[in-house]
Structures are given as structure tokens and as C-alpha cells.
């Protein structure tokens, strides 16, 4: 067996590939697997349970070699993390097209996926893992902040000051929760089973304190709440045990949610185990029995959330499909609390607003600082953005290549991208910038228990939209595009597309950026206008979209 050697993206303004897009793809693939970035790089696992960047190490090395020889008029095809072909296309075409974890709907179950995975025929791409634009926990911080800030605005008079949030899961993305709640002014108790994850969040300053027990965490949280002090507290334990324990103790938080990897009941969500029991043995010996255990645990977890909601907590699902798993295990009213998108985010989606991220290929933090300053000047009227960028500049630790994220909408992302391109061209930035986004975005995903939950016209499960988004990105000059299945909520529950663009300072880059970063967020406005959202129709009219069926 090959020995594992940690991977780290090259830095600087010299490239080894034939064009900057190929170089960007190579560096971003490597950056996804940087031990500072990935949750379990040795297994090629980036985040989200078992979201991988490449099928296996052999595939990884072949991708790297192929990107290095790829010409400016060729396109590399990736099928579930394996490079399968190089085609002659044209200069404006994407340099890489990726399809990860896609199954024909009738076969789209974890069982079938696992069979194919074991046979070496597939890998799970999650969202940005398989599409090489994951940037560590910082990537999700701002989206998580947007959600908690919106909860503060909607339910608590403007911020989360003087409130306590209870959540679980301090993994790759869940690890953003303590910082996001703190940023929104609140106190959080974060339950996590794995002490290594807790330590990691402490070290990267996403988390403030660890309590020795649940009771201690509650005491500390109440003290902070009374002082209106924003602080994050972790407690080690299983959410399926500690949430019911909260109910027994009679403690009701102001907000309750969860970000364990419940979307993957076999590998992501850990059911409680006796101290002398190794659940890996049960999983290997009797996967069905293991699944029942995991789902029963999730049922108890959801019942506790529903009870806390009944006692007055604002409960929302944080996009991990916990409710569906509990429903399978017999909790009939598992969907008695809403998902975070209909609860807090849909208005932003109507404006094509969503997570816009960029990465400095130079590796120089000064490049990100320069882009921060440029965006502060470009969008002086956006108070939330101003607050976020100033905070992030001071407090967010970089992981891997320096990167930034903020939420921008339709007719904003193209302006930001073109500005970055100018800054590369005139030397204000020392190397090209990679621009991408999460698949969790306004017009790129069909996920009835998450992004498209409770659509106005009932079109939650229509996945023509992410397919159109994938095609539009490819037709509009994206650097690489991906189409995935099962991200966020697991097999059978979602289809989504990812876009990455590169600002290398060239005229061709400007043309690509103008097209793809206008048309990509436009898909969010179009999708929501089509579903009848008034705000999306307004945006479409104001910002000049052409929607023939709506008379706009
Ligand atoms: P991850 O696999 O990196 O982390 C999951 C964490 O949960 C791990 O640290 C694990 O130890 C912990 N855990 C598992 N079972 C537990 C239990 N019973 N009790 C306590 N802790 C437990 O995954 P991630 O990247 O952090 O994502 C977590 C989930 O949140 C995924 O399902 C993802 O799809 C979802 N998610 C949604 C959004 C969103 O914006 N809606 C964003 C991020 C993640």
C-alpha cells in the first residue's frame, strides 16, 4: 500500500500547468486535501461525512498529471472522482467537467451507492469536496452567520444578544456554528461526540470554551446570557443522549438546531454506544442493525427538539436531513419544525444572493486583504457586508490558501469578479484569484428538505433547475463546472451544481467572468420568479432579466 504524504497546494505566481485555469484546478484540488483544510485527508475526505476530492490516490495523481498537460482548448472529464477522458473542445469551454455521485432516481439510495463505492465505481462528492472549492470551515461561517443573524432579526428583536442556542456537530461545517452565533451576539452550547473535533475548533478560534458536563455548560451559558456576553461553549457527548437530557433537566434554550452528519446514517451520525462496545464491528457485521440503531438515535434526538420547541424554543433544521431519518424511524411529526431556508434564507435567494467565495492562488494573505478593501469600497451601501468583511478581516483564521467568503446577489457577483480581474491585471494582486461558490445557492440546487423546501408553487423536487444551472455555467465560460447528487441531505434527496471561475487578469477571463457570474446568480432569480416569489419578480424587472413566460 502506498504511504500517505500530506498534500499542500503550490503558492506563488509561477505556474506549472499550461494555463491558469488548469493551474487553479490543480491548486484547488490540492488545497481541498491540505491537512489544514480537510477533515481526514489521508482518506481523501474533505468534509461532510465522507465527501471526497478524488476517488482514490491513484485517481488523484492521474488528475494532477492530466491537469499539468491539459491544453487551453481541452476539457478533462471527471466521473465520481476519477479522470476518465480528455476531449478537444475550445478555449472558452470549461477546462474540467465533473459529475459526482449521480444515480438514476429509482436507484438513488445509500445502499446502492455503498455497493458501487465498495466496488470502486463511485465516490461521494458532497458539495464543494468533489468540485474542488472547499476552503475550510471559514467557507461556511458567513452563511451560518447570515442564518443566525436572520433568526435574531426575525425572533429576538434584531440580534441574538441575551439568547442561548443549543446545537450539535463541530465538524467541517458545523464547526462554524459557535463563531457564527457569537458573531450574531448570542451564547451557544455545542454538543460534539469527538474530542479531536472540539480541540480543532478551539485551536482555530471557532470555539471559546469547553465545559466538563452538560450541567456546567448550562450554568455557564445562563451566566453569559444574563451578562449579555457572546460566548461559545462545547460539551463532549452524544446529541441523541444530551438533547433528551436537556428536556429532563427542564432547560429550554431560545434556539435549537443541529449539524451532525445526519444526512449519512451509516457513516455520519454516531448513535450512542456502551463504553465496552465498538460500533464499527456492528456496522461491518450487520449494517441493517447498525442503521436501525442510528435512526432510533435520530428519532430520540428529533423528539427532544420537538419537545424543546413545544416549550418555547425556536427550532429549525440546519440542512442535514435529520428530520427525514427520524421520520423513517417512526417520528410522524418529524417535520413539525421548518428547515432554515424557508425559515430565514429564501428572501436572499430571490435576489440571487448566496455564498460567493474567492481564493488567493498566490498564498499571500495580503492579496485577500486587498480584495477585502476593494469590496468595502465597491459596496458601501451594504451594511451587513461591511460588518462581515471588517469582522472577517480581523478574526477569521485562514486554512490552506487564504480565502474569503461573502454573500452577494445577481448583478453584484459579476462586478466583484471583474474588479478582482482588473486587480490581477494591474498588479494590485500578486497572482490570479479563484472564484467559486457553494452548491447551496439560490439557483443551483433541488433539495426538497433543504434549499427548495416549501416552495411557493410546490415545485420542491423539480431538478430541471440545477441541470439548467450546470449547462448555463458551462455555456457561459466557467472554469470548471460540476453536477452532484446527494450533497447535504444524502442519497436520493438532492441534485445540485457547482461553478468555479478564474480571474487571471486576461481579457478572456473578463469575458468569462462577465458571462458566468451574471448568468449563474440569475438562475436564482429566475427559479424563484418562476415559482411566483414577488421579490424575485421585482428583482428580475429592476435588473433587466428577460423571462418570456412571465411577461418580464
Ligand atoms: P462532518 O462530518 O465534518 O461533521 C459532523 C460532526 O458531527 C462530526 O464532528 C461528528 O463527530 C459529529 N457527530 C456525529 N454524530 C454525532 C452525535 N450523535 N452527537 C454528537 N456529535 C455527532 O460534517 P459537516 O461538514 O460539519 O456537516 C454536518 C452536517 O450539516 C451535514 O449533514 C451537512 O450536509 C449539513 N450542513 C448543512 C449546511 C447548511 O448550510 N444547511 C451547512 C453545512 C452543513
Automatic annotation (TrEMBL):
Cofactor entry: NAD(+)
Family: Belongs to the urocanase family.
Keywords: Coiled coil, Cytoplasm, Histidine metabolism, Lyase, NAD
Localisation per UniProt entry: Cytoplasm
GO cellular component: cytoplasm
GO molecular function: urocanate hydratase activity
Name of the protein in question: Urocanate hydratase
NCBIfam families xref list: hutU, PRK05414.1
Enzyme Commission number(s): 4.2.1.49
Bound cofactor: record note: Binds 1 NAD(+) per subunit.
Protein residues bound to NAD(+): 48-49, 126, 172-174, 192, 197, 238-239, 259-263, 269-270, 318, 488
Highest taxon in the source lineage: Bacteria
Involved pathway(s): Amino-acid degradation; L-histidine degradation into L-glutamate; N-formimidoyl-L-glutamate from L-histidine: step 2/3
PROSITE patterns named in the record: UROCANASE
Active site, UniProt feature: 406
Urocanase C-terminal domain ranges (all copies): 347-541
Catalytic activity of the protein: 4-imidazolone-5-propanoate = trans-urocanate + H2O
Any one GO BP annotation for this protein: L-histidine catabolic process to glutamate and formate
Pfam families found in the cross-reference section: Urocanase, Urocanase_C, Urocanase_N
Domain Urocanase Rossmann-like: 136-344
Matching Gene3D superfamilies: Urocanase like domains (3.40.50.10730), Urocanase superfamily (3.40.1770.10)
All copies of domain Urocanase N-terminal, residue ranges: 7-133
Purpose of the protein: Catalyzes the conversion of urocanate to 4-imidazolone-5-propionate.
